[in-house]
Amino acid sequence: MNRPDWLPSTSVDVNVHVHETARLIPHLYDQEARATVRAEGSGGSVTRYATRDGLARLRDVLADVVAQLDTARHNPAA
Predict the structure, then answer these.
(1) Which of 21, 22, 38, 41 has a 20 to 30 A CA-CA distance from 5?
(2) Which residues are paired to 29 by β-bridges?
(3) In Å, what is the CA distance from 18 to each residue of 21, 29, 66, 73?
(4) CA–CA dist 62, 56 (Å, integer)
């Protein structure tokens, strides 16, 4: 599913806190090489729609920020 040129690259700005009680629910659309991931909790929900490449980019950014947090935790600023 390609984005038409006339559509903006994003359509809304949403913030969500993913606490340990949040449910993360994937749904695959394998014929279209895309998926959704829904973060659902007591305060509401948000669904991320992405192609396989978009999900891989998101995965890489999340892995990088987790590594940065781990480094910061083990090397606190003096």
Answers:
(1) 38
(2) 34
(3) 8, 24, 14, 20
(4) 10
pTM: 0.71
Q: Please, which contacts does 33-42 make with residues 24 or more away whose CB atoms are closer than 8 Å? A: 34/1, 41/17
Tokens of 16: 């969500």
Gap between the Cα atoms of 44 and 23, Å rounded: 11
- Mind listing the pLDDT tens digit for each residue in 9-45? 776 777 888 899 999 999 999 999 999 999 999 888 9
Q: Phi/psi at 49 (nearest 5 deg)?
A: -100, 135
23-33: b or e for each residue (b if 16 or more CB lie within 10 Å)? eeeeeeeeeee
